[in-house]
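Protocol step 4 of 6: structure prediction from sequence.
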Amino acid sequence: MIRSSFRHIALAALTLHLVSSIAIGAAIADTAAKPPATVCLACHGSQTGRGGIPVKPWQGSVHAAEGIGCQDCHGGDPKDAANAMSPARGFLGVPAEEGIPAFCGRCHVGILEDYQKSAHGRALGKGGPTCVTCHGSHEVQKVTLEIINEKRCSACHPYERAARIKAAMQEVERNLVRIDGEITRLKQEGVDTDAWGKQLFAVRNRYHRLFHDVDVALVQQESAAIKGELDKLDDFLSRTDEERYQRKIAGAFVVGGFLVAALLAHLLAKSYD
């Protein structure tokens, strides 16, 4: 009776611990995923006119998902409603069109450099596109090849060149996504994937720098070189996976051998009885 009661108490304590751990973990994750509430959102979120327009697109953006708030781009004091838009508190407001690349480039330094070298960047101020022409101003999404599409590109020029660039990059992107998934799976299985993750990160950055180049031959050449790097990483991951599989098979045979030996020993001992 006492033992049964103790079991119930222990089970209840374990359940309470698990529930509280899950709740705390969810709260931490929720806090980490969302930027803190600011006076910017409190004011603009309640507006129905032009001032409220940026809020919803931003909430669905990669910036919001990464915790990048209004003040990170526009400056100002996000905790003081009276001085939130004061230049004395660093408020920058909305940049002029020619200033947009430098505005975004405060964080995206390498991308700004690539843009400035590109045909797009050289046409800045002469009717050429800025960052928001392709990425939007507040609805910015994580970049994939889908950003290169006929509707978007043909708004400014014929799509043919962009289509050739996209075709050159498609296999690289597919391999990047697949290898990233493989590394994630191995990590979840307890394998130390730190070095592979860093290698993939470097290759992915090299690939992303192609997005602002409109030289078809250069993009094709660089895509082929990046694909070669990914093939090497893929081969290494495949060999690692195969070695782990072989070790599992060998381990299963060893365990099976021990079980058979134990069974034979048991039967032998029983025969003597």
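Step 5 (inspection) to follow. The chain has a mean pLDDT of 87.
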